[in-house]
Amino acid sequence: MGKLVYSMITSLDGYAEAAEGDLGRGAEDEEVHTFIGDLFRPVRTFLYGRRMYETMVFWETAHAEPEAPPFIVQYARDWQAADKIVYSTTLESVSSARTTIERSFDPDAVRRLKEESEHDLSVDGPNLAAQAIAAGLVDEYHLFVTTSVVGGGKRFFPDGIRLDLDLVDQRSFAGGLIYARYRTR
């Protein structure tokens, strides 16, 4: 049975999307990016909302960039090898292989995916993750915390949800980014 993992880069004050600007320094650092690639290589299915998919579809062709360093090419190849499910009522078509569109998030269908999978799954994007969290589907939370306080935006954790978690791994990077992995109790 696979685990469902929710992971994003967050600001120091807990925002997965800043109201204005970006979240600060993050995965562009080779050390961090390589760590993220190694961490998520076993994930074989990514669950995306439309906006997150539109951000991540870059990886469908990133390997072909003439100046792409090996760690970028590796991440692109791993992303291309995984299945992607995009939850959207507005997206007409997808531009990546191994990708399907679902019109609504069905917790029971995701539960079945987890039960039938030999590999982990990832839910990406705070809106879609909020639905998975509310349904009790998320097994682990992987936070990559930047050194920036952004003062507003979309929170990593949804309002109105209480979670008691166990810290199972942590790491800090030279650029100041902190990784923390939590498991649900």
UniProtKB/TrEMBL annotation:
Domain Bacterial bifunctional deaminase-reductase C-terminal: 3-177
Domain of life: Bacteria
A Pfam family recorded for this sequence: RibD_C
Protein name (Swiss-Prot/TrEMBL): Dihydrofolate reductase family protein
Organism from which the protein derives: Kribbella lupini
